[in-house]
Design brief:
Pfam families: TctC
Oligomer: single chain
CATH architecture of the largest domain: 3-Layer(aba) Sandwich
CATH class of the largest domain: Alpha Beta
Number of helices: 13
Organism: Muricoccus nepalensis
Order of helices and strands: HEHEHEHHEHEHEHEHEHEHHEH
Protein name: Tripartite tricarboxylate transporter substrate binding protein
Distance between the termini: 92 Å
Helix content: 40-55%
Radius of gyration: 25 Å
Keywords: Signal
CATH superfamily of the largest domain: Bordetella uptake gene, domain 1
Number of strands: 10
Family: Belongs to the UPF0065 (bug) family.
Shape: globular
Strand content: 15-25%
CATH topology of the largest domain: D-Maltodextrin-Binding Protein, domain 2
Number of domains: 2
Amino acid sequence: MMDTPRPWPRRAALGALGAALAAPRARAQGAFPSRPIRLVVTFPPGGSSDVIGRILAPRVEARLGQPLVIDNRPGAGGNIGMDAVAKAAPDGHTLGVGAAGALAVNPSLYPSMPYDVARDLAPVTLLAGIPFVLVASPRLGLRTLPDLLAAARARPGALTVAHGGNGTAMHLSTELLNQMAGLRTEGVPFRGSAPALTAAVAGQTDLAMVDLTSVSGLAGTDQVALLGVTTARRIAGLPEVPSFAEAGVPGYESIGWFGLVAPARTPPAAVAALNAAFTAALREPETVSRLEAIGILAQPGTTEEFAAFIRDETAKWAGVIRAAGTKVE
């Protein structure tokens, strides 16, 4: 006698159906990202890091399928914004665009920090670099970096260098030049690159360390002499201007930079997805050209490369700051 299968009880059948319908929804809820991503930018609207974020936002959104919401949190050299990221939920839905200051320099500048970069933040990718240019006032009569090195060594402490403010990358780039070339110059802080350049053009200072954007259009003019770029090699935007390393300071390299970080303990799968989306966006030809038009170089990379870069930059600038005695209260 054959057994006939007994029908499932109605309640069991409904339960199985509900489980089957819920499975795709559970998988969808576990997918990343599951809601808009907040991108904390540590400078005000209109600054370089803000512009980078807004150029990348639509391209990253297209890859991740969620909006990227810019949240400007300036102040304390980037510490306020980075602290907000460090204390956010580690789920990948809060990210930060941090500059060299907040991620590598400030621990050596400030007497105390609200977060620890290595402990509280997870590197995602380096985003971009900003080369600096050393310019000379026309009244100085110097046209090359070797000319400047000779003049500065002949008159220790006599030449003045405008820069974008104490503790900024421009200021520290000047200190690095002093230390590597055996110079002694007098720094003159301004509130940003543009007024520093204006001071050199007007002859209020002998020199200025400024960002690439500030000097666009000045090459070949008699307003200032472009003595050298701070990158390891010449850059496409100023092909006629040598690097410091090429022109008499071997091994010199200094750039302003911005990187993407998440809170520590963000799931590795989320970090990997974010790295893939942002680096792909940075490699798009239109992204590269738009950034280069404003003096910014796209620099995508792996999370491991960025972590190593932060460690190297932290050690490098700690030594420069210690030797220069620079502090920010």
